[in-house]
Prior knowledge:
Blueprint: H1 2-26, H2 39-60
Amino acid sequence: MRISRLASNVLALFLMLLGVIWFFQGMGLLAGSFMTGESIWSAIGVMVAVGGVALLFAANSRYFR
């Protein structure tokens, strides 16, 4: 059970980081990609980051065990 919790935490942190990067690229703050300046990527980034936060909460909550 500990390995799946660790894997869930690592995946959640990865999703949050990826979401933040996509958000900043979509807003035009991180240059160098086809996503730079495209607002759709900022919206996708927010959704991915929120999904990462939800997964982090679920992996560490007693309710879901």
